[in-house]
Specification:
The chain is α+β, with helices and mostly antiparallel strands. The chain contains five helices and 24 strands. The strands form seven sheets. A four-stranded antiparallel beta sheet has the order 3-4-5-6, with no helix packed on it. Strands 7-8-9-10 form a four-stranded antiparallel beta sheet, with no helix packed on it.
Length: 373
């Protein structure tokens, strides 16, 4: 047990630094410190391409490939002497440059591929989110971790990118208002919610169908390493918006102009209770360590639109991440999927009393039942 302790501590250090926010630049871990902890943790394994062998059996190194992509992205953007992340407001700087009248090269580019994969873990990219036109089934949008916002008007036969002029092109959430047909308004949550390919600069808004974008009242600097993991908008009162992040839950009641922090913590998901969107929401936090204190993954509930939150379920420290879904067919039912530190499935949970309590209905730790592999 003692020999395993350093391994667990290293795991916590690099994972927590990788996923956490930091509003204090003096105490924040820099790129080289995070990189060093990661390399020390994996130095005892011969990892190649995200896999290693134990007793002749091939095992996936959880988080290894995501970290390598993150490392590749940031190593040319940090201060090479100190390892500090950029501290300026990229959105403001971008607008300043645009006002100078400079324009990028519009040469005719042709994709050289690859546009297909032979399979395996890597694939050719990820999609973070999808949103649909309120009435036209052939028009929808998708958001990529570092590929931006894309739109199709012909059911996916062809696509147009809408964010090539933005300084950060990761998109983790898209919201299309009910009045889109006349307002041409789109909201996006920037950054990559899962692997940190891009950190968030906040929620952006367009009122001309994505041709131009403006910052809302929720803005971040990339140096703070925020990730927006969920954006919820009231289905009928669409001036009311909630955003869950790895730095807490924020709320706006005036269409994103102003935001307030309504719950602190490191969150991974958030959902409305069907039919009770005025008052009731559920949120799931992940396991993290702060100042030497363990904070287990938990499920929270509010019955007063976020004014106060109650912990309704606390997981063991073996649980790293939790995803939620609230049934629309029965507002009393809420589901939770819990994963372990190594990315495997711990269990599937269900509440039949509007999230007041949860019980496991599927045990993913039983041999052959790990649906997340």
């Amino acid at each position: 047990m003692l020999s395993l302790l350093p391994v667990l501590l290293f795991s916590q250090v690099w994972r927590d630094a990788f996923y956490s926010t930091s509003n204090d630049s003096k105490s924040a871990m820099n790129f080289y410190e995070i990189q060093k902890n990661f390399n020390e943790y994996w130095s005892k394994y011969d990892v190649k391409g995200g896999f290693y062998y134990v007793d002749g059996k091939k095992k996936k190194a959880p988080g290894w490939k995501q970290f390598k992509r993150w490392e590749w992205f940031w190593e040319t953007r940090i201060d090479v002497k100190t390892g500090a992340f950029p501290s300026f407001d990229k959105m403001l700087l971008h607008e300043e440059i645009r006002s100078m009248g400079y324009k990028s090269d519009e040469s005719n580019w042709v994709s050289m591929g690859p546009n297909s994969s032979n399979g395996g873990y890597a694939g050719i990219g990820r999609i973070n989110c999808i949103a649909f036109h309120p009435s036209d089934k052939n028009t929808f949008w998708i958001g990529a971790p570092s590929g931006g916002l894309w739109k199709t008007t012909n059911g996916g036969s062809s696509w147009t990118v809408l964010t090539d002029n933005l300084p950060v092109i990761g998109v983790s959430e898209i919201f299309i208002p009910n009045d889109y047909a006349t307002s041409k308004t789109i909201y996006i949550a920037t950054g990559d919610r899962d692997a940190g390919d891009n950190y968030s600069i906040g929620v952006l808004k367009s009122t001309d169908d994505g041709q131009n974008w403006q910052a809302t009242g929720l803005t971040f600097n990339v140096a703070n390493r925020y990730r927006i993991v969920r954006m919820l908008v009231h289905p009928t009162q669409q001036n009311i918006m909630y955003v869950a992040t790895n730095g807490g839950i924020f709320k706006s009641t005036n269409s994103g102009t102003d935001w307030s922090l309504i719950q602190s913590g490191v969150f991974f998901d958030m959902e409305f209770k069907a039919g009770s969107e005025d008052t009731e929401l559920y949120a799931a936090s992940r396991y993290y360590v702060s100042s030497g204190v363990d904070y287990p993954a938990r499920i929270f509930k509010t019955t007063n639109a976020g004014t106060s939150w109650t912990t309704v379920h606390t997981f063991s420290n073996s649980i790293y991440r939790v995803e939620l879904d609230a049934a629309k067919s029965d507002p009393n039912i809420v589901y939770a999927l819990a994963s372990t530190m190594d990315g495997g499935m711990e269990g599937f949970y269900k509440s039949t009393n509007s999230g007041d309590s949860f019980s496991m209905v599927y045990d993913g730790t039983i041999s052959g039942k790990n649906l997340l592999n």
